[in-house]
Amino acid sequence: MPVNDELLERFRAVDTTAICDADRTTRVVHGAIRARSATTRVFGPAFTVRCREDFLAVLRAVEAAEPGDVIVVDGGARETALGGEMFARAALARSLGGIVVDGGYRDMSYVATCALPVYSRFVTPRAGTASQLGELQVPVTCGGVTVNPGDVVLADDEGLVVVDPQRLESLLDAALAIKNTESHVIELLDGGGSLSDAFNVAEHVDALGRGEPSNLGFSSFHG
């Protein structure tokens, strides 16, 4: 399923925590890969890059990616800058969806205020070389998870996740249902209720105490 404005609006109504609650097998990028920019929310198809100690492939990706694409760089988790201010400015000019680097990024004086979402594992002043072609649009590993070209990259203040595009719509539906239930729980708590009023705590604890399988869940009055 192609990423479009309607799906983007649906993502804005949820967050990555609800997505992970809806599907615990969701690919979660390691938390060491953190937002470096003023904008943290990402939603777009992955344009993948694999390179090592050399940023030429990232430059090529910035020039080749389509508007809305999120450049995902497998830099081998090495502490070498594979991008900086110029790449972020060029990506903004081409209306890309963001840059995610499992490696280093630099020029924080600009990137920290940048409207383009930029994520990286390291911040470092030392740039790589520009003499190796690298690889574009191949399956890569970023933050410990596999990212295929066209996988949907979603991020917010909680972190980064990667979703199969064929599962995106149903996952957003499930995440929205969770957010709606959570809003009822918040109203209950704000009104003086307890967690035991909101969740099946007693039943869950009793079942586990008897050695029976059980899951903690919302109380039935939220259904």
Automatic annotation (TrEMBL):
It comes from the Bacteria. CDD domains: RraA_family. Signal peptide: none annotated. It catalyses: oxaloacetate + H(+) = pyruvate + CO2; 4-hydroxy-4-methyl-2-oxoglutarate = 2 pyruvate. Gene3D superfamilies: Ribonuclease E inhibitor RraA/RraA-like (3.50.30.40). InterPro entries: RraA/RraA-like, RraA/RraA-like_sf. Its cofactor is a divalent metal cation. It is an enzyme of class 4 (lyase). Coiled coil: none annotated. Its EC number is 4.1.1.112, 4.1.3.17. PANTHER family: 4-HYDROXY-4-METHYL-2-OXOGLUTARATE ALDOLASE 3-RELATED (PTHR33254). Homotrimer. Catalyzes the aldol cleavage of 4-hydroxy-4-methyl-2-oxoglutarate (HMG) into 2 molecules of pyruvate. Also contains a secondary oxaloacetate (OAA) decarboxylase activity due to the common pyruvate enolate transition state formed following C-C bond cleavage in the retro-aldol and decarboxylation reactions. Belongs to the class II aldolase/RraA-like family. This is Putative 4-hydroxy-4-methyl-2-oxoglutarate aldolase. It comes from Lentzea atacamensis. The lineage of its organism: Bacteria, Bacillati, Actinomycetota, Actinomycetes, Pseudonocardiales.
